[in-house]
Give the backbone structure.
Amino acid sequence: MRRLVLFIIAFIAWFLLVWPFDTLTNHLRWQSVIAGLVVALLTTIIFGEVRPRVPRQGIIKRCLWAICYLPVLFWYCLLANLDVVYRVLHPEMPIKPGIVKVKTSLSTASAITALCNSITLTPGTLTVDLTEDGYLYIHWINVRATDIEKASRIIVSRFERILRRIFE
Amino acid sequence: MSEIVGMVIIAIGVVFDFFGCVGLVRFPDIYNRLQAATKCVTLGTCFILLGALITCGSAPTATKAALCAIFILLTSPTAAHALARGAHLSGVKLWEKSVVDKYEDDKKH
């Protein structure tokens, strides 16, 4: 069942990306459709085993929180870009890089994945690695705190609250 | 009208991409370069795709642009993470003026 859903999603994504209609003659290009079927099948075979645990209850509330999360992420993404532009254009290049360790209290795999991606897109931070027990290693372009609690408060806490409402 | 808006957004995207490339040249080590490359190029390319979405009239092209933007947003941080981790595990050193490297400290134990 799960594999069937994955197959259909993969095929729809392929269909939208390739769009195998000839707009002049209104013919469907069968080669593209067959290639899409093959690719979707391969995707299903390779990634069918991956089972993210998605909580069932409160799906509407989670979607609403996810929609609220997007502008927050976009805002931090924009700030991150202006931050990079500032550091790149400044003649003395004000960087103070280092790899710090932070602790996250999120537990599910999908929540931690979203957290890592958000951290990478936000000002001055890049996720390098994570451990099984919830520690993340973050490359920080301008290290402001090296101990775990303080760095966690600066880097992680701004996303944790909203991500917990979406994924946990 | 939509053409002008689209062009302005594409121009903003190109400017961000440009600064990302300048960062790629100026920053001292692979990790800092990844920071510049990931952030600027992700947002810059998303802006370019958004501009293309607004400029073009046809639905298929707009759908493609939107899908590409979503895939870039999802995959580029993951790729940066994989590159940084791979570089560190294969022994690429941080810049000599770096302040701290907790990852290296923890690997030794």
Notes: Chain B is about 80% helix and 0% strand. Chain B has one domain: 2-94. Residues 2-94 of chain B form one domain.
